[in-house]
Amino acid sequence: MSINDTVNEFLQNTKEITTLRKQITIFTKQNKQLEEAIKNYLTTNNMDSISLESGQVFVYDKKINATLKPENMALSIKNELSCDDVKAEKIVKSIVDNKVFNVQKSLKTKHN
């Protein structure tokens, strides 16, 4: 396979992926609305699941990690290390300022 064929196939694939992502976005938005309706129904009717021939749906409590904020980090550091606010804030600033980024080569496409 020549480089021209390879690039053309790559560009065609990226175009197809873009189209599919747009469709996925539409389905995801629809599912969020459907999900809210189902959760409301189950919660209102004091149910934790519903079964149909096509499958089951369960509602449950999901723990979600809170965003790691500098204020929360400073409080945890202060409590764990038994240090004052200034030292805890200094440690947080050092962590935030020295954040490491991984860099990798990537391709960008432009379709004609």
Summarize the structure in words:
The chain has 112 residues and is mainly alpha-helical. The protein folds into two domains: 3-58, no CATH class; 65-100, no CATH class. 60% of the residues lie in helices and 7% in strands. Strands 1-2 form a two-stranded antiparallel ribbon. β1 and β2 (55-58) form a beta hairpin. α2 (70-81) crosses α3 (85-97). The radius of gyration is 25 Å and the shape is flat. The mean pLDDT is 87.
Topology, please?
Blueprint: H1 3-44, E1 49-52, E2 55-58, H2 70-81, H3 85-97
Antiparallel strand pairs: 1-2
Helix pairs in contact: 2-3
What's the short story on this structure?
With 112 residues, the protein is mainly alpha-helical. The chain has 2 domains: 56 residues, no CATH class; 36 residues, no CATH class. It contains 3 helices and 2 strands; from the N terminus they run H-E-E-H-H.
